[in-house]
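Please decode residue identities from the backbone states below.
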């Protein structure tokens, strides 16, 4: 008689790992991803700055572009955003709200417009916290 454990050990599932979003077996399969956001954002920034939902969306969009996605200018804290319209579409908000949020985040000095479509984003969101964690930016002093 064949041992049940040896049969189960040799068995391979027909489903791919990560196919939990595929209900019918024929849809698009998504792999879960994650972006690293410093805990100081949740512990201090959201509490102290009282950002609106849209300001948080815009800040996280820029932050992910600078610090979480592949970026040649990460050591400078800078990333290109080719289109505010594309950002608004990806976030599901109107362009006027994007502009308003960008202005407010610049007032807080969390981001800075370098030139049209190019943004500087602090690693730890504020100058004080950047200094506390000794965050430096290559050839770009703010």
């Amino acid at each position: 008689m064949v041992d049940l454990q040896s049969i189960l050990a040799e068995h391979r599932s027909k489903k791919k790992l990560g196919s939990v979003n595929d209900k019918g077996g024929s849809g698009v399969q998504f792999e879960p991803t994650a972006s690293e956001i410093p805990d100081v954002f949740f512990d201090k920034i959201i509490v102290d700055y009282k950002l609106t939902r849209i300001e948080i969306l815009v800040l996280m969009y820029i932050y992910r572009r600078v610090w979480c996605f592949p970026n040649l200018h990460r050591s400078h804290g800078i990333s290109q955003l080719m289109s505010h319209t594309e950002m608004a579409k990806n976030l599901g908000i109107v362009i006027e709200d994007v502009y308003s949020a960008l202005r407010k985040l610049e007032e807080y000095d969390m981001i800075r417009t370098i030139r049209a479509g190019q943004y500087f984003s602090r690693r730890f969101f504020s100058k004080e916290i950047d200094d506390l964690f000794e965050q430096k930016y290559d050839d770009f002093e703010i």
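Observation: The chain has six helices and three strands.
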